Amino acid sequence: MSRMYWTNFLHIYQPPTQTPEILGRVTNECYRPLVAILLRYPHARITLNINGCLTEQLVRDGYRDVIDGLRELAARGQIEFTASAKYHPILPLIPEEEAIRQIELNTEVNRHYLGTVYRPQGFFSPEMCYSRAVAEMVCRLGYRWIIVDEISYCGKLGTVRYDRLYRIRGLQDFYVFFRERFTSAGITYGSLPTGETLLRRLGAAIGQKRYLLTGTDGEIYGHHRRGQEQLLIDIFASGALDLCRLTDLFALFQEKEEVDPLPCSWSTWEDELAAAIPYPQWAYPSHGLHDTQWALTRLAIKALASADRSAPGYEAARQCLDEGLHSCQYWWASCRPWWDTGMVERGAALLKQVVDAMKSQLSPELVCRAALLEEQIRKTARTWQESGKARTLRRQYLETHPGVSSLLTFG
């Protein structure tokens, strides 16, 4: 008898600007319970991304037990890790040399702390931000597959067939897996809090030879959604679905289809793709904050590229740029619907520190330009907050995108 396979992809991450208090809360509400649940059910299987930035924070703040638990789960074959970029940058929007550096840093950190069980075959581009250039780069780096949102298949939701594997046209034996959005959103936004609700949603499809590929932030289990971990417990305990890791699908499904996925993210909607806006939460056209943020980002990258690597301050500047490319500052500036002035200001400050650390080597004009851009970002963010513009933009977005049914506290 045929049965559905559930391939559950989880992504866990905290930005480099995260506070120890919030990290502690997320660890106790989500990371520790999640590891404990997986250890309790030896037949449970997931695919997991943990960014090296979070790995280092967990070690630094005394949560090595989470890392130890993940290592044990991987050794038992219950989880497989994906590769990614250490500080969670939007890879299609940064230079390739910076993207490769972030990927290599991520591998270095995770291999150091997780050991030999960290041997990813697949790749998670932060926020599932996909472009052809990213796929080509990841393929060159030796990975076998990349996970993206289903909207990337053809620009429409609900068109992917989950009874086959998808190979990217023109790339040698390189595959793409499409995350199913409808069920993933149900888990994320709390409409599928238990195993029973998930099975009811799936209905007769449970008896079909196909796979269900969900992909969410791992933090929804217990942190963003209190009690959401009950869904995992119910499914693991019931045995109602066969469970597998993403790479296991190669042995389970033989039919293949060639595709050329579209640029997108896991937050992009059909109207945004139709308007040629693939990454709206991070780079929306004529967006008063995004434009200035990316101007400062480009300036920081240019400043570091022109600096003498042996000069005093270079290593500090390099670290600030690595961290400063994190995606959260753009996300929280977007008002689609996410908004947080503190995250915006902290991100801008990190990028300005790149220039400040190297200012003895840079022209006064460039140093002044960086200061002006950071000040403009701060002033614009505060003006939007105080004038109510941010609230208006968020409301407009939610009115035109009813699929975003709930506000969470992540980016």
TrEMBL record:
Family in the record: Belongs to the glycosyl hydrolase 57 family.
GO biological process: carbohydrate metabolic process
UniProt cross-references to InterPro entries, sorted A to Z: GH57_Enzymes (IPR052046), Glyco_hydro/deAcase_b/a-brl (IPR011330), Glyco_hydro_57_N (IPR004300)
Upper classification of the organism: Bacteria, Candidatus Methylomirabilota, Candidatus Methylomirabilia, Candidatus Methylomirabilales, Candidatus Methylomirabilaceae
Assigned keywords, A-Z: Carbohydrate metabolism
Name by which UniProt lists this protein: Glycoside hydrolase family 57 N-terminal domain-containing protein
PANTHER family from the UniProt entry: ALPHA-AMYLASE-RELATED (PTHR36306:SF1), ALPHA-AMYLASE-RELATED-RELATED (PTHR36306)
One of the record's GO molecular function terms: catalytic activity
Glycoside hydrolase family 57 N-terminal domain boundaries: 17-226
Pfam families: Glyco_hydro_57
